[in-house]
Design a protein that fits this description.
single chain; about 725 residues; alpha+beta; D-amino Acid Aminotransferase, Chain A, domain 1; OB fold (Dihydrolipoamide Acetyltransferase, E2P); 5-stranded mixed sheet; about 20% strand
């Protein structure tokens, strides 16, 4: 094909693809199959590869566009993106409407009711009809520039149709539709990757990807429902915005109502509740907004919210069904968790067949019995839970549930001994070689926050244990590419092989894990009571795993607390710990003349007991045999005090633009800082990203310094 002929065909393909995009995304009326669409798209990709001079920025193939970013640029919103006040009470909706009527007496105030989309708030700016910028809400004043990522969403037009205004800022929510979410999780399951928890989290995480090519693979959608700054737009009512957006080719909500009284508002809220689970996106409520822009201006704003709008959140849907059985699952630490097997029932948009029962005490407290009719709801409309029992419908022969008797006093997976752990209100399997525990510990070892071994999780971990290739986590380090490549993730009747490509990636990740620092390894070994922070603290004061296993510092902690309890002199031990930097003198009146150690006696006991056990000794031996020698992160007390973030306490909240919370935590701790899970007067900084939680508000109330990622990077050493 010659260049001229190719140019003509490329133009035809682009026009045809754009037409099918419009029919699919805007009119929900596709006229060709996905396969036919993919063939057209593939033809265009091939032609542009053969004739690179024909590639243009607005080609459908360029939606993946651009190289991965190093970080998101911060951009200011043309007008603030404020959050709405929430309520779960219809009475408060009535009060809201009465309040705005009092503020504008003798005026009729029509309002618009529309779905509250459970997605990620974004702002898109079109100039003379062309997409110029897209940004997250951020703190309402400044957000992340996510233009490249928004361009990967096919329902977002590069150019507006019809007579576009000079400036149009549109606002809405990016979401992942239910079918796309299920398909994505199915693909991850096949690859042995951890499953995503819910569509909203995936949407938020996708927009935070620095590589738009990754975003393009996620089935994201967008629904636009409002305007910000505009120029050359003649619209006076919010109800006029929806048809205008549709006319311009922008995806907007298909359901909305205008109401002129409290009764009409509540009726519309109930109507939406009846149909909202049929919408492509998740909804958790209804938004009520004054229709007139002129009235909105006069109603004004509070410090953080508009007075002219409120979000009503629906109560989690509750339904009744029969509890047919209770099964017991075994976790990585041996904890036995009861799960309700239900008569399948439709709730909050999906069919539910199982629900968590938490633990034995929860079953006793609610008096849950097999055969009961139970009330279930989706907590946060994601995780099903049994709320209560309809005791009036209880069968006469239903007996109180006896946890130990139900499983015949032994682990349901390995048949090993079990005991009730009083500290955790749970039963635990004592056999550390239990296959269920092995699987979970393999997953834990391979998790991103531990050794970050790609592709070894979920079904891959299950099959490695099931096929006998892995009997304990460290067996991963003896696997060969050939073994992994042949691993059958399916059944004998329907085999599904892991494959050489996936096997190679996994083995490369396993080899990288050998060189990870001591703190990562201490966390990955799943030592009871050792989380990431404790693992980091231990790694600063010990040269290697063997030194931790026989730690004199930990023995001193135990000796000190034992002598304090027995009212014996512990001064000599205290001075030794202080000199090592593993303790400091207590500043509280209650702890007068005492010390505060890096780890407490319970944790010290746990670590020493673990490495003194048969399993712990075997781990130390295997690591030596495998040549795994994690590098020391040991620092002297003097050096620790000289680190840039020494004695600084951070709390993290929200989603950061270019790093995960784990990465931020590692940076802080490697520089001598401490990361806490809760805000207090002792907190030095709150590092806040997009969609921050209650920690943000608490920090504001306490006057604690709140910084974003850009400010955080400035305090890091160059």
């Amino acid at each position: 094909m010659q260049q001229k002929e190719a140019a003509k065909r490329v133009q035809q393909l682009r026009e045809e693809i754009r037409k099918h995009d419009r029919l699919y995304y805007e009119e929900a009326a596709p006229i060709i199959s996905d396969r036919e669409y993919d063939r057209l798209y593939s033809d265009l990709v091939d032609l542009e590869a053969e004739f690179p001079d024909l590639v243009t920025p607005d080609s459908p193939t360029q939606r993946v566009g651009g190289k991965p970013l190093k970080a998101f640029e911060q951009v200011a919103h043309l007008t603030p993106m404020l959050s709405l006040d929430n309520t779960y009470s219809e009475d408060e909706v009535k009060n809201f409407y009465n309040r705005i009527q009092r503020l504008l007496p003798n005026e009729k105030i029509p309002v618009v009711i529309e779905p509250k989309v459970d997605g990620v708030a974004v702002s898109l700016i079109y100039e003379s009809g062309k997409l110029r910028q897209a940004a997250t809400r951020g703190d309402g004043t400044v957000g992340d520039n996510i233009t490249q990522n928004i361009r990967t969403i096919r329902s977002v037009p590069e150019r507006l149709r019809d007579a576009a205004p000079k400036l149009l800022e549109v606002r809405g929510e990016v979401y992942m539709d239910r079918k796309g979410f299920e398909k994505l999780n199915e693909e991850r399951k096949k690859q042995g990757l951890p499953l995503f928890a819910n569509p909203r989290n995936v949407a938020a995480g996708s927009l935070k990807q620095l590589d738009p090519a990754i975003v393009a693979k996620r089935p994201l959608g967008i629904v636009l429902y409002g305007t910000g700054a505009t120029e050359g737009l003649d619209v006076d009512l919010h109800s006029e915005v929806f048809p205008l957006l549709k006319k311009l080719g922008l995806p907007t909500t298909e359901w909305w109502r205008v109401a002129k009284s409290v009764d009409e508002i509540l009726s519309a809220i109930h109507d939406l509740d009846a149909i909202r689970h049929k919408l492509a996106y998740q909804t958790d409520g209804a938004v009520v907004k004054a229709n007139s822009f002129a009235q909105r201006e006069r109603l004004g704003f509070t410090a953080k919210s508009p007075r002219w709008a409120i979000a009503y959140k629906y109560a989690a849907e509750r339904v009744e069904t029969v509890l047919n059985d209770i099964i017991i699952q075994v976790g990585r630490t041996g904890i036995l968790t009861p799960v309700a097997v239900l008569e399948p029932v439709f709730v909050s948009g999906s069919t539910v067949g199982r629900a968590t029962l938490h633990n034995e005490d929860e079953i006793k407290r609610k008096d849950i019995r097999i055969g009961d009719t139970v009330v279930i709801e989706k907590a946060g409309e994601v995780i099903p839970a049994v709320v209560e029992v309809a005791k009036s419908k209880r069968p006469r022969d239903a007996k109180p549930f006896d946890f130990a008797k139900h499983i015949h006093g032994k682990c349901p997976v390995c048949g090993g001994p079990i005991r009730r752990d009083p500290d955790f209100v749970a039963w635990r399997c004592e056999n550390l070689q239990c296959p269920a525990q092995t699987t979970r510990r393999v997953e834990f070892l391979a998790a991103r926050g531990a050794l970050d071994i790609e592709s070894v999780g979920g079904i891959v971990a299950d099959k490695l244990v099931e096929r006998g290739l892995v009997r304990e986590p460290l067996d991963l380090f003896e696997l060969q590419i050939e073994q992994l490549a042949k691993l059958n993730l399916g059944t004998e009747e329907a085999p599904r092989v892991f494959g050489e490509k996936n096997a190679t990636k996994a083995i490369n990740a396993i080899e990288r894990a050998r060189t990870l620092p001591l703190s990562r390894w201490l966390f990955a070994l799943a030592i009871p009571d050792v989380g990431k922070t404790t693992a980091t603290q231990l790694a600063r004061f010990h040269d290697n795993v063997d030194e931790v296993a026989h730690s004199q510092l930990l023995r001193d902690v135990l000796d000190y607390h034992q002598k304090r309890e027995q009212k014996e002199s512990a001064k000599e031990i205290a001075e030794r710990l202080i000199k090592a930097g593993f303790a400091e003198r207590s500043k509280s009146k209650a702890g007068k003349d005492g010390i505060v150690t890096e780890v407490g006696s319970v944790v010290a006991h746990s670590i020493l007991d673990f490495f003194a056990s048969v399993t712990g000794k075997k781990i130390l031996r295997r690591m030596k045999e495998l040549g795994i020698q994690p590098k020391s992160e040991k620092v002297s007390a003097k050096k620790a005090a000289e680190l840039p973030l020494a004695e600084k306490t951070f709390v993290l909240t929200g989603t950061l633009p270019s790093m995960t919370r784990e990465e931020a935590t590692e940076k802080i701790e490697s520089l001598g800082g401490h990361v806490s899970s809760s805000v207090s007067k002792k907190t030095d900084y709150v590092l806040a990203g997009a969609e921050p939680g209650s920690k943000f508000d608490k920090a504001k109330g306490l006057g604690i310094k709140i910084i974003d990622e850009a400010a955080f990077r400035k305090i890091l050493p160059r």
